[in-house]
């Protein structure tokens, strides 16, 4: 796992642990052996540590952390001490990335050089820990306190040029990194090493540490609300200036141990792997990412120049994929093109894109008013409003107009893909591509297969998601798919809580304190109360009844229409300056609780004869989350989602579920399924008119076991395969 190569008078230690050169046990062993061997060889005058493949080193092997008691010697700090104490100079030669423990290895070395394109960083905070092999004690000795606090607490990666500027690197190389490392090594042979050993030098500006810490702490608390690790990162860097090197390193060890055993880090490590596992799709027929090739997509069409269509077009052109945007009303088309241009202008303003890049994007965007213009594209995404008949008409027409190989995708957020596909003669090439609004910002893409969608079609839209930078999850068709179907239960309970005693701000506050980026009523104001109203009207129409503000039940199912009263008052949310909250036109980001809304709610309750009472925060959390969790288990049971990780990724990226709480499925696993099941049964008894409280069979089966079944085994209980 570490290749030992002698090249003239140099020993080259090449870390060889694909795919990302993580510091697994054998790598750590190999580094220690290599350093010792090189020191014992009189012919060797200097040592170079380099990574094989595309990367220097991605850091500690995160998988080892789940069984940290079994982490075998040598641990990374003793590897590092062997490197630092080497009597011969050790140079790290960085290309690709040096992350976390990988950067720590470099900081143990006497010299660090890197390719121009290399990036370095301490992403540990993103998995809820801190750099635990003296990174928090060593970095400030090179870069100063303020920079170290920012870099470690944010987890951001910086490029080689910036790393050089901040003292982390000794040289930025333009040529072959190994050749440059060899030349560099020859120049430093024989030079004294003590001043190059970071454990022997002091932190500059140590006297300022408390002031620097307070400023950084205030920023971190605001930016990473609710998260523990960023604060511990700052504390550990502060220690580096207040204590001896050895004492600060021992404290760092104590802090990382505490973090690693904590709930947030366990959830964040789970989230890291869940996100990666989502891309490993598999269909019930056995086709999977490993055995199915995507088709080539070189041109696309997007139908509908409204908010969604424009947003989707931005995602495609930003990735260099040409788009024909079709909108039958020329004025709407013009407006859509302007919206797209405006979105890209925003990116230029934020320096996420140069004006030249914007111009290139606009060059590959064409407008059209007829579907005929899509005859030759490889893939079409329909993004018209949510109406099954309209979508079926469009798909039937596309089937006639487009070449036989064109994939036909719908951005429907709820409708059955099979019903759309059956309007065509190519149901194998019909698939759902459900973007979340605003499509050019939200990273989630929920791809939906129908009963006839082919593996190649699935592979193609999964690959398209990757190409446009989305976190892409595959699910099976059903009403609302995974995201909206499970989130609807969450929203329904939030509305019922309004009818029983809460105000919007009470519910939002509790759920924000739980960790949601925004409570459901702030989200509703942002997305538009009119949008929710329209969806509810469509659903009622499809179900054959008229929904009014008087409706309380349909088919024995409780319905809350309190939001519809706001719609009727023209309170659509931020866009009208009033919704669940009121907004000062000069500060639309700040929702202000509105006594008029309280009056509407109280009035609604009085009219409906609903008794109000005080509802404790714990009930708010349970009602919203457990209702969703129960539905998530049903989704798993019906194999709408293939694995619990897929559901959690959808909630994190679609509904801002806090990553440090994992997702509804992970959360349920931590609460304990027995407890979750008991509470679902309790609410089912209390609220018999909400079918989302009917306990899921899968949840019942799992909860009936005397020991908790690990998440990785839940799938085995689907379809009665295990009892
Ligand atoms: C109880 C107390 C005990 C205390 C013991 C404390 C000991 C502490 C000592 C040292 C501590 C050091 C801390 C660390 O170093 S933590 C790790 C920090 N590093 C990271 O977080 C990097 C994470 N990885 C990435 O950001 C990316 O993977 C990247 C390296 C940029 C590559 O990206 P990309 O090319 O897009 O590839 P993927 O992300 O898809 O990854 C490919 C596969 O590799 C797996 N992977 C990646 N990094 C790691 C890793 N560090 N450990 C294990 N596995 C890793 C990833 O899951 C993919 O796997 P698969 O293909 O199976 O999905």
Describe it for me?
The chain is α/β, with parallel strands linked by helices. It has 3 domains: 2-260, 2-enoyl-CoA Hydratase, Chain A, domain 1, CATH 3.90.226; 300-478, NAD(P)-binding Rossmann-like Domain (Rossmann fold); 502-612, N-(1-d-carboxylethyl)-l-norvaline Dehydrogenase, domain 2. A hairpin with an 8-residue loop joins β15 (430-435) and β16. α5 (145-154) runs antiparallel to α9 (229-242) and α27 (673-686) packs across α28 (697-703). The mean pLDDT is 96. Ligand L434P2JQ is lined by residues 19-20, 22, 58-63, 68, 71, 75-76, 97, 99-101, 123-124, 127, 131-133, 256-257, 260-261, 273, 276. Keywords: Fatty acid metabolism, Isomerase, Lipid metabolism, Lyase, Multifunctional enzyme, NAD, Oxidoreductase, Peroxisome.
CATH homology superfamily name of the largest domain: 2-enoyl-CoA Hydratase, Chain A, domain 1
With strands numbered from the N-terminus, the spatial order across the biggest sheet is 12-11-10-13-14-15-16-17
Gross geometry: globular
Spans of at least 5 consecutive residues whose pLDDT stays below 50 are: none
Mean pLDDT: 96
Number of domains: 3
- Structural class determined from secondary elements: alpha/beta
Radius of gyration: 28 Å
Distance between the termini: 43 Å
**CATH class descriptor of the largest domain:** Alpha Beta
Total DSSP helices:
28
Task: Say which molecules are bound, naming each kind only once.
Answer: ligand L434P2JQ
Largest sheet: 8 strands, mixed
CATH architecture of the largest domain: Alpha-Beta Complex
* Number of strand segments: 21
By CATH, the topology of the largest domain is: 2-enoyl-CoA Hydratase, Chain A, domain 1
Which percent bin holds the helix content?
A: 40-55%
GO cellular component, one term: peroxisome
GO molecular function, one term: enoyl-CoA hydratase activity
Subcellular location: Peroxisome
Family: In the N-terminal section; belongs to the enoyl-CoA hydratase/isomerase family. In the C-terminal section; belongs to the 3-hydroxyacyl-CoA dehydrogenase family.
């Amino acid at each position: 796992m570490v290749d030992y190569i002698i090249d003239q008078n140099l020993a080259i230690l090449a870390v060889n642990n694909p795919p990302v050169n993580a510091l697994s046990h054998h790598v750590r062993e190999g580094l220690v052996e290599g350093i010792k061997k090189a020191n014992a060889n009189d012919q060797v005058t200097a040592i170079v540590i380099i990574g094989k493949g595309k990367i220097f080193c991605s850091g500690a092997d995160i998988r080892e952390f789940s069984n940290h008691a079994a982490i075998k010697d040598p641990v990374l700090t003793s590897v590092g001490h062997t490197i630092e104490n080497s009597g011969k100079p050790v140079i790290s030669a960085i290309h690709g990335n040096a992350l976390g423990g990988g950067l720590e290895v470099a900081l143990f070395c006497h010299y660090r050089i890197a390719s121009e394109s290399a990036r370095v960083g301490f992403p540990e905070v993103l998995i809820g820990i801190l750099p635990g092999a003296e990174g928090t004690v060593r970095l400030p000795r090179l870069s100063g306190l303020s920079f170290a606090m920012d870099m470690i607490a944010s987890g951001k990666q910086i490029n080689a040029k910036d790393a050089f500027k901040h003292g982390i690197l000794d040289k930025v190389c333009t040529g072959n990194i190994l050749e440059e490392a060899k030349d560099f090594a020859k120049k430093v042979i024989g030079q004294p090493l003590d001043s190059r050993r970071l454990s022997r030098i002091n932190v500059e500006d140590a006297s300022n540490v408390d002031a620097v810490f307070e400023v950084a702490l205030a920023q971190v608390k605001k930016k990473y609300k609710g998260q523990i690790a960023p604060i511990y990162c700052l504390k550990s860097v502060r220690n580096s200036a207040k204590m001896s090197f050895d004492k600060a390193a021992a404290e760092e060890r104590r802090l990382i141990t505490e973090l690693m055993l904590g709930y947030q880090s366990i959830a964040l490590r789970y989230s890291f792997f869940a996100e990666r596992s989502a891309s490993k799709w598999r269909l019930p027929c056995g086709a999977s990412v490993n055995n199915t090739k995507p088709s080539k997509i070189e041109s696309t069409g997007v139908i509908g120049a409204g908010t969604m269509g424009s947003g989707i077009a931005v995602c495609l052109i930003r990735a260099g994929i040409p788009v024909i945007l079709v909108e039958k009303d020329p004025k709407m088309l013009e407006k859509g093109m302007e919206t797209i241009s405006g979105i890209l202008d925003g990116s230029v303003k934020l320096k996420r894109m140069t004006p030249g890049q914007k111009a290139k994007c606009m060059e590959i965007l064409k407008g059209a008013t007829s579907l005929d213009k899509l005859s030759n594209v490889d893939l079409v995404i329909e993004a018209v409003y949510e109406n099954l008949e309209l979508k079926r008409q469009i798909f039937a027409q596309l089937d006639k107009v487009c070449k036989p190989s064109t994939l036909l995708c719908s951005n429907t957020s709820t409708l059955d893909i099979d019903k759309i596909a059956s309007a065509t003669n190519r149901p194998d090439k019909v698939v759902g591509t459900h973007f979340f609004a605003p499509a050019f910002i939200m990273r989630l893409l929920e791809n939906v297969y129908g009963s006839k969608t082919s593996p190649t079609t699935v592979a193609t839209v999964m690959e398209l998601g990757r190409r446009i930078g989305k976190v892409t999850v595959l699910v099976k068709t059903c009403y609302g798919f995974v995201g909206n179907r499970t989130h609807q239960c969450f929203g329904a309970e939030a509305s019922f809580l309004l009818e029983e005693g809460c105000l919007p701000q009470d519910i939002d506050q509790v759920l924000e304190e739980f960790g949601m980026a925004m409570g459901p009523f702030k989200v509703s104001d942002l997305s538009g109360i009119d949008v929710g109203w329209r969806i509810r009207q469509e659903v009622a129409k499809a179900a054959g009844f008229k929904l009014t503000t008087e409706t309380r039940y349909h088919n024995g199912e409780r319905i809350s229409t309190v939001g519809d009263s706001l719609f009727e008052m023209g309170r659509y949310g931020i866009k009208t300056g009033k919704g669940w909250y009121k907004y000062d036109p000069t500060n639309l980001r700040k929702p202000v609780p509105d006594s008029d809304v309280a009056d509407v709610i109280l009035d609604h309750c009085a009219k409906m004869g609903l008794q109000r009472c005080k509802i404790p925060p714990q009930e708010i959390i349970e009602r919203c989350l457990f209702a969703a969790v129960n539905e998530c288990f049903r989704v798993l049971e019906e194999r709408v989602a293939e694995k619990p990780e897929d559901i959690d990724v959808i909630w994190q990226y679609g509904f801002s579920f806090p990553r440090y709480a994992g997702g509804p499925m992970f959360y349920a696993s931590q609460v304990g399924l027995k407890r979750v099941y008991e509470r679902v049964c309790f609410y089912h008894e209390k609220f018999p008119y909400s079918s989302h409280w009917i306990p899921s069979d899968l949840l019942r089966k799992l909860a009936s076991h005397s020991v908790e079944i690990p998440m990785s085994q839940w799938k085995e209980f689907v379809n009665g395969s295990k009892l």
